[in-house]
Amino acid sequence: QIAAVGAIGAMISDLLLVREVRSPLAMLLVRAVVGSNVHVFRGKKGPLRWIAAFFGAVLIAAPLPTDELGVVLLGASHLRSIQLVPIVLMADFIGIYVVLSAAQSLL
Predict the structure, then answer these.
(1) 13-41: string of b/e by CB count within 10 Å (b at 16+)?
(2) Mean pLDDT comparison of 41-45, 75-79, 97-101, highest-scoring range
(3) For residue 20, what are the CA distances in angstroms to 24, 27, 60, 68, 92?
C-alpha cells in the first residue's frame, strides 16, 4: 500500500517535470548536452523513442539520485502523456517497492 501511494505521488511530480523538460529552454539544454541530433526522438514510429523511454524508466526506478536524468530521457522521447503515465507509475512503484523491501528485510 505504501509503495502504491508513494508511486502515485512520485508519478505526479515526475510528469510535471517531464512537461517542463519539453519546454523550448529545456530542449535547448538537451541539445547542448546531446548535440544537434535531438530531432531523432521526434519520429512517430522510431524505436529510439521507446529505447529512451525504457532507459528513462530504469533510471527513475533505480534507488539512486538519477530521477532527473530519467525525466530528461522521458521528455526527449516525446511520448504522449497517456503513454508516459503507466511507464512512470510502474517505474516509481518498482523503485519504491525495492527500497521498502530492502528496509523491511533489514528489520
Answers:
(1) ebbebbeebeeeebbeebeeeeeeebeeb
(2) 97-101
(3) 9, 10, 17, 12, 19
Helices (H), the chain: 2-21, 24-34, 47-61, 67-77, 81-106
Task: Please report the pLDDT score of residue 63 as a whole number.
Answer: 78
Is the CB of residue 71 less than 8 Å from the CB of residue 29? Answer: no
- Does residue 52 carry a pLDDT above 70? yes
Where residue 35 falls (left for φ over 0; alpha for ψ -120 to 50; beta otherwise) is left
